[in-house]
Amino acid sequence: MQIRSKLMVVVFFFGFMPLVSLFWFVGRTGLEAHNGFQYAMTMTLIGTILVGLFTPGLVKRWIFGSKLENMQQFCQAVKEGRYDVHLPVGNSTNDQQDENEWQVLMRHMNWMAHCIKVNAADLQQAVDHLRESQQEIRQQRDELKQAQVRQLAVQAQLERKTQDLSEVVGKIRNLLDNAGQGFLTFAGDLKVAGEYSAECVMLFNREIGGEFVPALFYPGDEQQQNFLKALFNKIFKEEDTFLRDNYISLLPEEILLGDTYIKAAYKLIQSPLEPYGRQILLILTDVTEQRCMAEQIEQERNILSMVVHAVTGYHEFSKARQDYGAFCREELPAMLASSRTAAERVDMIFRAVHTWKGIFAQLDMQTLAARLHELESQLEKLRNLLEDDLAEFELTRLFTRYSQLVLYGWLEDEIRLLTNVLGERFFQEEDKIIIEAGRLKQLEERVLQILPAGQAKRLLSELRRLRYKPFTDLLQRYPEYTLSLAERYDKLLRPVIIQGQPVWLDPDRYYDFAKTLIHVFRNAVAHGLETPEERLAMGKEEWGRISCSIREEDGRLVVAISDDGRGMDELAIKEVAIQKGVARPEQLQGLSREETLRLVLADRFSSAATVDELAGRGVGLSAVLEEVNRLGGQIHIVSEEKKGTTFTFVLPLEPLEPPEGFDVAFFAEQLQHQTGRYLSEEYRIQVEAVQELAAECNMIPMQELSSFIDFQGAWPGRVMFSSSAGFARQLAGDFLPDGMAAEEQQMLVESVFSEVCNTIAGNTLQLLPGGQVPLSMGTPVTIWAEGASAKYAAAAVRLWQIRTDAGPIALSLISLAKEREDAYGASTGGR
C-alpha cells in the first residue's frame, strides 16, 4: 500500500469519522439544543484536538516504524565504510509495481550500497595502485635527488680540481717567470712551443713563440745554425742513450747574445701530447753578472797574490822594479839605437821582453805579464820578416806605439794597485817595508775570502810572519816593573826571567790579556812574597823568586806565572768570600781546593783591608779572568802554603800556519765554555759539570724548548740548545710581568731563550782563530716540543749535557757535511 493511501485512510478515520459519528448521534437523540450537547461538542473537539496531537506519532510508527532506524544504521555503516549492509524491503511478492516509496527508497539504497561497494573496491585498487605509483615516484625522486647531489659534488670537485689545476699552473708559471731563468720547449721541428717563461722574452728582447731555435742561438750565422740543426736531429732520432748523451754534450753550454752571456742546459723529455713523442726542455740562464763577478774575483785574486808577493818578497820586487825602470829608460833605447841589423835587434829585444814577462809572472803581476806577452807576440811576427828594410820599418813603428813611457806605465799601473792596498808609505824607503798592521790584517782576511784554500794557506803564513810577534815581546816591561814594585814593598826579589820558546801570535788579539797580567805580577809581589825577615824565619832564602814560562802546547798558548811565597789560605779565602757576598756559607761546603782558590777571581772578592790579612790574591784578578774568557781560555790555580802559588793561563792560539780544516772539537769546546760564561755572568747560573752523551742511531732527544742554529762555510752544520721549560722561564724571569697571559708568556720565554742561544753562538764565533775558513751563522729557529727527538741519519752527531745549579741544558753539534756528500756526492758541500 502506498504511503499516500495510508495517509488518506488516517485522515478519513481520524478526521471525518468522529464528526459523522457525532452528527448521527445528535440526530438520533435530538440533543442539538441541549446543554449537554454543547458540552459533548466541546469534549468532542477537545478529543479531536488530542487525537490530532497523538496521531503523527502513531502515523510515524505505523508508516515508518523501524525502517527509519534501519536506514540510520544503514547510513552509519556506509559512512564507516561497511558496504555489505542491506535494508529489508518487505515485499513478499517481489512485485516492484506494488512497492511504496519507502520500499523503493530502501531498494535504491541497497543498490547504492552495492554500487559503492563495487566502486570502493575498484577505488581501493586504484588507490593502492596510485600509492604504489606514488611510492615509486617518491623513490625515483629520491634517486634523482641523490643523483643531483652526486652530480653537484662531482661538479664541485671538478671545479675545485679545475681551480687547483689553475692555481698549480699559475704557481708553476709564476715560479718559472720569477726563477731568473728562461724555460722553453721545442720538438723535432726545432721551433719554440707556444708556452715559455717571461725570462725568455727578457733574454731575447721579444716574443719567441714559433721561432727557429738555431736561429735564436746564432742569428745571422748560417753555418752554426746548420750544425745545431743536424745535432738536434740526431738527438731526436737516436735511441741509444749513450750516443744521445754524447750528442747532447756537443751542444753549446754558453752562448753570447750581444753583451749578454747565456748559459744553456738541455733536458730530453716526453711530449705531454704525444705518448711516444720527444721534446727538449731548454733552460737558459743569464750569467753575465756572474761572469763579470768571476772576472772581478779573478782580478782581485791576482791583485792579492801580487800584493802578498810584493810584501813577502819585497827585496825581489824592489829590485825588479828598479831594473825594469832601467830597462825602459836606458836598455831598450840603446837596443833600438844599436848598429846591429834589424833582425838582431828584434831578437835582443824579444829575449829581454820574454825575460821580463817571466819575472813579473813569478811576482804574480799578471796584467803586466799579459801586456808584455802581447808585445812579445808582435816581436815574434817581426822575427819572421825576411827583408831587413821592412823589419826596420816595422820595428820603428812598433816601438813608436810601445814607447818607453808606455812600457813603464804598465808597471806604474801595478804599483798604483799595490799602493791602494798597502798604503803610500810602502814604497817610501828602499831597504825597509813600511805598512800599517791594520792593512796587513785586512789583507789576510781578503786572502782567506778570495783565494783558493791551498794558495791562501801558503800566503797567510808569509803575511803573518810580517805581523806576528813572540808573546814575550808583550811582556818585556814586566821584569823591570816587578823589581821596582818589590823595592816599594821592601821585599827582596831575584830578577824575573821569562822563559820558554818563542810563541808567535797576533799582538792585537792578545795585547789586552798581556796588559792584565800586571795584576798577577803585582799580587805576586804584594801578597805572595814574604818580607826578608819572614822568609828567613820560615827557613827560606831572603830573596824571593817570581818566574814566567811560555810555551805552545796542542795548539794553545800556555803562560805560567809562579812565586815561591807564602801560598794561599783556604779558610781565609772562604771567610772573605762570605764577608764580601761572593758566596753563601752553604755554597762553600764541599768545594775542592782548586774551586776554593778560584774564588779570588771573583769581582767583589778583593779589598785592601782584607787582602793583607788573607795574604793571598785578589786585586785585579777579575780583569784577568774577563780577558781569558773573552779569548776562550782557562785559568788553573795551584797553591801550596809556605811554598808558593802558580797561575796557569791556557789560551787558544792562532798559529802561523793555518789549519788544514775546521776544528770541530775546538768549536764544541768553545761553545761549552761560552755557555757557562754567559750563564754565569748574566744569570749567576753556575755550571757544575759537562758530560758527553752517546747519540744512539744519531737520535737527539729534545727537552721542552729547543733552539736550532745553522752554520755555513767551513763547517756546514747545526747547533741545538735544548732545556726544560723551567730553565727557560728562569732565563726570562726578569721579562715576565705579573698577569701576563699564558700564551704571551710562552712566546716571550721562547724569544728570550732564542736570543740567549744566539748570543752564545755569536760569542763563540768571535773566538774562532782568524786562520779558520769563514763561518757564517744563521737565525735561530726555536720550537716547543716536549718528548720529541730529532734524527739525522747521515750526519755526524755529538751530544753534551751541561749540568748547572738551575737544571741541565743540552748542547748538540750536527755535522751535515757527511749528509751532503751522501746526497750529492763527496765533492758537494752543504744542505
UniProtKB/TrEMBL annotation:
<feature type="coiled-coil region">
    <location>
        <begin position="120"/>
        <end position="150"/>
    </location>
</feature>
<feature type="domain" description="Histidine kinase">
    <location>
        <begin position="517"/>
        <end position="655"/>
    </location>
</feature>
<dbReference type="Pfam" id="PF13690">
    <property type="entry name" value="CheX"/>
</dbReference>
<keyword id="KW-0145">Chemotaxis</keyword>
<feature type="transmembrane region" description="Helical">
    <location>
        <begin position="39"/>
        <end position="59"/>
    </location>
</feature>
<dbReference type="GO" id="GO:0004673">
    <property type="term" value="F:protein histidine kinase activity"/>
</dbReference>
<dbReference type="InterPro" id="IPR051315">
    <property type="entry name" value="Bact_Chemotaxis_CheA"/>
</dbReference>
<feature type="coiled-coil region">
    <location>
        <begin position="365"/>
        <end position="396"/>
    </location>
</feature>
<feature type="transmembrane region" description="Helical">
    <location>
        <begin position="7"/>
        <end position="27"/>
    </location>
</feature>
<keyword id="KW-0418">Kinase</keyword>
<dbReference type="Pfam" id="PF02518">
    <property type="entry name" value="HATPase_c"/>
</dbReference>
<dbReference type="GO" id="GO:0000160">
    <property type="term" value="P:phosphorelay signal transduction system"/>
</dbReference>
<dbReference type="InterPro" id="IPR028051">
    <property type="entry name" value="CheX-like_dom"/>
</dbReference>
<dbReference type="InterPro" id="IPR028976">
    <property type="entry name" value="CheC-like_sf"/>
</dbReference>
<dbReference type="GO" id="GO:0006935">
    <property type="term" value="P:chemotaxis"/>
</dbReference>
<keyword id="KW-0597">Phosphoprotein</keyword>
<dbReference type="InterPro" id="IPR004358">
    <property type="entry name" value="Sig_transdc_His_kin-like_C"/>
</dbReference>
<keyword id="KW-0812">Transmembrane</keyword>
<keyword id="KW-0175">Coiled coil</keyword>
<keyword id="KW-0808">Transferase</keyword>
<keyword id="KW-1133">Transmembrane helix</keyword>
<dbReference type="InterPro" id="IPR005467">
    <property type="entry name" value="His_kinase_dom"/>
</dbReference>
<dbReference type="InterPro" id="IPR036890">
    <property type="entry name" value="HATPase_C_sf"/>
</dbReference>
<protein>
    <recommendedName>
        <fullName>histidine kinase</fullName>
        <ecNumber>2.7.13.3</ecNumber>
    </recommendedName>
</protein>
<keyword id="KW-0472">Membrane</keyword>
<dbReference type="InterPro" id="IPR003594">
    <property type="entry name" value="HATPase_dom"/>
</dbReference>
<keyword id="KW-0902">Two-component regulatory system</keyword>
<dbReference type="InterPro" id="IPR036641">
    <property type="entry name" value="HPT_dom_sf"/>
</dbReference>
